Amino acid sequence: MKPSILYILLLSLCLFFSSCAQVSLKNFEEQGQLPLDNNQLQAQFNGKHIHLESIYLDATVHFQGNNKLQATDYLGNTEKGKWTLVDKNLLCIEFDTWYYGDKNCYRVIEDNGSLHFFTRNGAPSYKGTLVNVDSANDSIDHAKDVEKSVNDTSAQGSAYAVMNTSKSLPEDNETTKQRFTRLAQNCPDCNFSGVDLSNAQLSHANLAGANLSGADLTNANLRQANLQGANLSNAQLIRANLAGANLSLADLSNSDLRGSNLIRANVTNAVFKDTNLTGAHLESIQGKIQ
Description:
Shape: elongated
Largest sheet: 8 strands, antiparallel, barrel
């Protein structure tokens, strides 16, 4: 996958997605829940319609019996591709154009009717749910009625174009900004680079290790949020409320923190190179700004 202006990369996303409840592969394994083996994957996916959701994709995918797949996202964009099972119990998905045709492989854990997809290194990627054929067709028919505005689809792939659309979504759907705000409530290691999260209510959010470079967090409420190790370089954090937030090891270089509230924030080993802290409230911070 290659960078775009609004770089919303795999990541899966953030994905445990009606609430973006991110859990790690290690968490599951520590509880005795192991990834599905190839036989289980075959039974779980072959011929089934699975709804996949992440910060950059919301689509129903038909895993056909001939190892081909067809997908329709929530704006009615359609895609084809193929799926395979490989050694070490990995499910591999390769779309024709989405994600630039890259082949991505996942370990999958089934938990309470949900399928949790993890990359080879254990990073969360998708949340999947089984849908019946009638529901899948209804969703596709509804999506086709939605007016689409696809921006540079051939260059970026329709999954990205969906996130860049300037058209309003139907009233029964979230706006892109609302969706990102919801997902960001609990999305460690997710990629929100360049995303508009201005005025977002993210108090106590878990964004540890997340990529928020270039994101607009103006007036965002990040009180006591976990931003440990997050990339906040070049981010707009003007008047952001970061009181009590964990910013240890975070990269805030070239970010704009004018008028922000950093009271009692943990900035241990955080990077503040060329950061604008004009008017920022720095009382009782933990660590040193360096």
